[in-house]
């Protein structure tokens, strides 16, 4: 019998516009629903399942960890915290790490770091520059930093101390902060994810780095979605050759196990003192093992290069099939973080793609977003386009 899933959640809060699909298991870049239907996964649980599903190296490591110890708490040392932190320090060129469990939690810690950075310098009312269309999470502070009315509506009063500026406009940033002695940090995503795959230009990133150095502000880059190899470098800002002072990470870091990290450079690494910050789940043995093994496997299997190569192939194939078509505004992004902006709202495409056996998302109303596992092959990427292109053509011509 087919499982019917519509309106089948009487006891969970009505927070998500879900498709009537329940996934049961996966293998590589494929997942199956409870009715046995197979899907090609070009979403990876929103940039989370870095290694796809049932990875032959990750699963035994996690099974081993579960049988040893899942959680211990931060009253004690967790050896893999030090191991994962050392690896993130090596990959980022930064110095110290705090571990949490979700993206908003990492961003909340970043905001606290910026505020205390200010207070330590005698700034009583610190202000942080944030961006139009940004998404930083749904806690009260992170939704206040987010640049989307829909996320904020109904939850006022918002947290104060944020100054909002447009993307990629250094003059606007200068003007918005001119003479303001309360500014302590500039905070953005290298490539906005929820906002519609909107990249910051390399020259802009370099200019903001210079400005932050000159003004003694923290440069805080939210790599929760665009980080962890997705663009073909460990962190997307590395394409611009800069190093931030604070970098929140989450989504792809544990390949499906909830985990987050705030990586800090010398300017921010020693702001928190005992008692300033903490969390119960953060850095627990299961999450740390997932992080350590995810990074190890990514290196062993050359997944950064794969993300670059397969991403270029995917974007190229999309451009060939759909670029220039009336109604296709732009195809953008880097590596396996790709957005295709259409001229009209296209939320219906998620269901139509699922019907055709493909998992994608639509964000910012009119941007088809592809975030496949970093293990995807060129042949599988071609298959994604093979399913998607006719759906988009149909959609635009109706
Ligand atoms: C998803 C996301 C967050 C929030 O992460 P959660 O784990 O959902 O709290 C924050 N910033 C960016 C850039 C994200 O993509």
SSE layout and pairing:
Blueprint: E1 23-27, E2 30-33, E3 38-41, H1 44-47, H2 58-68, H3 79-92, E4 96-100, H4 103-120, E5 127-131, H5 140-145, H6 149-152, E6 162-165, H7 170-177, E7 183-188, E8 191-192, E9 198-199, H8 202-215, E10 218-221, E11 246-249, E12 260-264, H9 285-300, H10 303-322, E13 328-334, E14 337-342, H11 348-355, E15 358-359, E16 361-363, E17 367-370, H12 378-397
Parallel strand pairs: 3-15, 5-6, 5-7, 7-10
Antiparallel strand pairs: 1-2, 2-3, 4-12, 8-9, 11-12, 13-14, 14-17, 16-17
Helix pairs in contact: 2-9, 3-9, 10-12
Walk me through what this model shows.
There is one protein chain. This protein has 398 residues and is of the alpha/beta class. It has two domains: 23-55 and 302-397, Alpha-Beta Complex (Aspartate Aminotransferase, domain 1); 69-300, Type I PLP-dependent aspartate aminotransferase-like (Major domain) (Aspartate Aminotransferase, domain 2). It is 36% helix and 18% strand. The chain contains twelve helices and 17 strands. It has helices at 44-47, 58-68, 79-92, 103-120, 140-145, 149-152, 170-177, 202-215, 285-300, 303-322, 348-355, 378-397, and strands spanning 23-27, 30-33, 38-41, 96-100, 127-131, 162-165, 183-188, 191-192, 198-199, 218-221, 246-249, 260-264, 328-334, 337-342, 358-359, 361-363, 367-370. It has a four-stranded mixed β-sheet. A four-stranded parallel β-sheet has the order 6-5-7-10, with helices on both faces. Strands 13-14-17-16 form a four-stranded antiparallel β-sheet, with helices on one face. It starts with 22 loop residues before the first strand and ends with a helix. The model has no long low-confidence stretch (mean pLDDT 97).
């Amino acid at each position: 019998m087919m499982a019917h899933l519509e309106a089948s959640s009487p006891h969970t809060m009505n927070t998500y516009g879900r498709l009537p699909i329940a996934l049961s298991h996966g293998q590589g870049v494929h997942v199956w629903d409870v009715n046995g239907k197979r899907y090609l996964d070009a979403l990876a649980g929103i940039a989370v399942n870095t290694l796809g599903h049932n990875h032959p190296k990750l699963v035994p490591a996690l099974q081993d960890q579960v049988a040893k110890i899942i959680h211990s708490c931060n009253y004690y040392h967790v050896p893999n915290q030090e191991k994962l932190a050392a690896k993130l320090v090596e990959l980022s060129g930064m110095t110290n790490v705090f571990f949490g469990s979700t993206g908003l939690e990492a961003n909340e810690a970043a905001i606290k770091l910026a505020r205390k950075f200010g207070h330590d310098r005698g700034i009583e009312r610190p202000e942080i520059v944030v961006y139009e269309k940004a998404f930083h999470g749904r806690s009260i502070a992170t939704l206040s930093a987010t640049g989307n009315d829909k996320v904020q509506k109904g939850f006022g009063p918002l947290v104060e101390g944020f100054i909002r500026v447009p993307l990629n406009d250094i003059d606007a940033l200068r003007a918005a902060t001119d003479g303001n002695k309360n500014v302590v940090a500039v905070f953005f995503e290298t490539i906005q994810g929820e906002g519609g795959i909107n990249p910051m230009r390399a020259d802009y990133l370099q200019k903001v780095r210079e400005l932050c150095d000159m003004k003694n502000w923290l440069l805080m880059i939210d790599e929760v979605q665009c980080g962890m190899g997705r663009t073909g470098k460990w962190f997307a800002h590395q394409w611009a050759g800069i190093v931030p002072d604070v970098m929140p990470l989450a989504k792809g870091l544990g390949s499906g196990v909830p985990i987050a990290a705030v990586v800090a450079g010398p300017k921010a690494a020693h702001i928190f003192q005992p008692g300033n910050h903490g969390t119960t789940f953060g850095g627990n043995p299961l999450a740390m093992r997932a992080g350590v093994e995810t990074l190890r496997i990514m290196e062993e299997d050359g997944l950064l290069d794969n993300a670059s190569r397969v991403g270029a192939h995917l974007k190229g194939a999309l451009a060939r099939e759909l670029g220039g078509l009336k109604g296709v505004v732009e195809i953008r992004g880097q590596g396996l973080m790709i957005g295709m902006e259409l001229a009209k709202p296209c939320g219906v495409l998620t269901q139509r793609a699922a019907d055709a056996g493909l998992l994608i998302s639509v964000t910012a109303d009119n941007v088809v977003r592809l975030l496949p596992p970093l293990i995807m092959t060129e042949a599988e990427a071609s298959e994604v386009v093979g399913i998607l292109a006719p759906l988009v053509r149909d959609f635009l011509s109706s």
